[in-house]
Amino acid sequence: MRRRLRPKLKPKRTSRLREVRKSGRIGDGRKAPTRPRVSPTSQDEVIRLAVRFLAQRDRTTAQVERFLLSRGVISSRIEQAVFRLTDLRYLDDLAYAQRWVEKRLAAKPMGQERLKAELQAKGISDGVAERVLTEVFRLNSEEIVARRALRGMSHQGKRSASGYMARFLHQRGFTDEVIDRMMAEFKRSEDVVHGEE
What is the pTM of this model? Predict the structure, then answer.
């Protein structure tokens, strides 16, 4: 039986530049020189830089400020840029928070406490977060949102034990009062089911 010969594979050639970029080292072990980060010098450059950052996705004022600060922009220019971007409606923390809460509740229903904590982590002020959450939960009570969360939990095949449900609702940031009402509702429905048998 004849052996089939495989062609010899040539070793991959990587460019010298790619090797330096990957390792950060030059062939003799020295650290590769990096291009110094040049901070924007004019206010127009700062605004252009911020607009490019905002073009990637929706951002909060705090996120833009942190980004510009990381690029070496001085605080007075950051302040001016934020004022200008807010004036042009590129930055609007209230609108950002409203959109973010609506998306978050549609994807993963949760309580006010957790939503507020997540908004604050994104740099939304307490006042703006409170205002948005008050409006959202005025339209849909926290109990309605908790029921939606529990329905989603049952669709995922999770156990319906009351202890598990209470922990689940607590992790989702619902208040103790709402959790107590949901557990009482669950107990009543269980009593009805068992009473019918």
Answer: 0.66
